[in-house]
Target: Transcriptional activator
Amino acid sequence: MRDLLSKKSHRQLELLELLFEHKRWFHRSELAELLNCTERAVKDDLSHVKSAFPDLIFHSSTNGIRIINTDDSDIEMVYHHFFKHSTHFSILEFIFFNEGCQAESICKEFYISSSSLYRIISQINKVIKRQFQFEVSLTPVQIIGNERDIRYFFAQYFSEKYYFLEWPFENFSSEPLSQLLELVYKETSFPMNLSTHRMLKLLLVTNLYRIKFGHFMEVDKDSFNDQSLDFLMQAEGIEGVAQSFESEYNISLDEEVVCQLFVSYFQKMFFIDESLFMKCVKKIVMLKNLTIY
Model:
């Protein structure tokens, strides 16, 4: 994912990662060798990151330079910064949120020419295809390809770009999603912490945007667990959650939508309830005890 950063930003990120990971003295010559660049480039990069991250504490001496911050949140701040200041990522995010818009509107949003936009999209697609099976199209403006890859990529991207309490999804407030997840936790005794809750919300809201633009994942009926879907659709309180979806999202929380939201979890070997797991185990044991003549 970081390959979408500019060459300079990518190098500056690697520089900070080296300083964070090792927390020792580095001479500029050593950093230049590790980063495959000139000492002058390292000097310029250090000047830039010191200015961009005033909260980071750098020590310089005849021994070289080192960073003494040890809080994990500091390196997270670094990642947020580079993602937020990347033109390539910003254009990719704009297209995700505004699928179907005119290419001209993207040019106006980012003050770039049409030729520059096509060049950037070509670069984005080249990088994406190294790991994922999807691409960005400008005729029309949309993101197409393997739907599972698209959803995974953007959920991961949102988790790395935005801070814990940030919610950049103007079309979907977080409350109905929280209600749905709380119902799932209650009904399944799903082990939960704040980090997992946030990631699941990001996955669900990413799925909602794809549903909004008419993109659905193909469901393998042989591997899909209909019992898990039925279990949730019959859970006490689902009607209230469905009303919230209807009133705030204008989306009917029917079986198809629930299936699309939780398609990665409603697999035959993924159990949202202990009773469903035990029922499956008993069935497997019975099948093993059958004698075939």
User: Anything to note?
Assistant: The radius of gyration is 24 Å. The chain has three domains: 2-74, 86-145, 174-275. Residues 194-212 form the longest helix (19 residues). The beta strands are 58-61, 64-67, 134-138, 141-145.
